[in-house]
Amino acid sequence: MEHFSPFILVMFTLLGSLAGFLAGLLGIGGGIILVPLFLWCFPAAGFPSAHLVHAAFGTSLAIIIPTALSSTLGHCKRGNVEWHQVFYLAIGGAVGAFSGGTLAAFLPGDWLKGLFGLMQITVALKLFLFHPRLPPERITPAARPTLIAVGLGGGVFSAFFGVGGGVVAVPLMVILLQLPIHLAVGNSSALIAISSFFGALSYVIHGWGSPLLPPFSLGYVNLLVAALVAPVTMVSARVGVKVAGSFTHDRLVRVFALLLVLVGLRMLVVAFF
After folding, report:
1. Contact 53, 105 (CB under 8 A)
2. What are the pLDDT digits (tens) for 190-232?
3. Which of 34, 100, 121, 242 has the fewest Cβ atoms within 10 angstroms?
4. What's the pTM?
5. Helices vs. strands in the chain: H and E counts, helices first
6. Beta strands of 163-244 (E only): which ranges?
7. CA 186 to each of CA 86, 131, 160, 212: distance values in angstroms, whole numbers, following the listed order
8. Kind and range of the H or E element at 75?
9. Other CB atoms closer than 10 Å to residue 258's CB: what's the count?
10. Are 199 and 97 in contact (CB under 8 A)?
């Protein structure tokens, strides 16, 4: 238990609150915030460097599961989830997430850290520059193979980077499936819940029996950290949503995009230089 002193436990709780608040404030999934925070504070908790990145990714996915389920229920009450489509999205998402987690498990931590940094910079540039014209909404149902393919892409991205994957899934549903934006967001929440589960399962299996992992580790998923962070993340996300109404959304997104660039560049430098 020397890994989890009272100070460390309080630090995880505060960082979870910060991640949830920023996620709610900016309308962006918590994983893209949680992973860098975990990479910063896991060494202080005694996580071995060989498993540091994998534990950050796996634990982040475990935390995303209840958050995505809560979001899905909220969207479902508003009629923004089409379960027939979600069924086929989930098939692709489950396969993609398990495959993405497996691929990440066999890559060195420095490579994953560098690729995560590149992903952050790409997402930031998208927030800065990419404002697509939305295609006309589809009248006929989307083809099953297309739904499975979109789920597969979202699942691979989610598990490989330890994030929810909404930043990829929502644009794919709007552009390729031509869904209304509210339905794309609702379906994406359901897909994220499923892909996060199978992604976390992949990190559990591939980390099973790994030496030197701290107490309460189930493979590369640390259950104590997940249990501490998930509740405060969900509560603070609602606070962030309420506070967001007091600020100009475009300005908030630009500030966050700049922060992503800085964090991404730092991760690239640490990983490869």
Report:
1. no
2. 999 999 999 999 999 999 988 888 889 999 999 999 999 999 9
3. 242
4. 0.86
5. 10, 2
6. 217-218, 221-222
7. 10, 21, 22, 40
8. helix 52-77
9. 13
10. yes
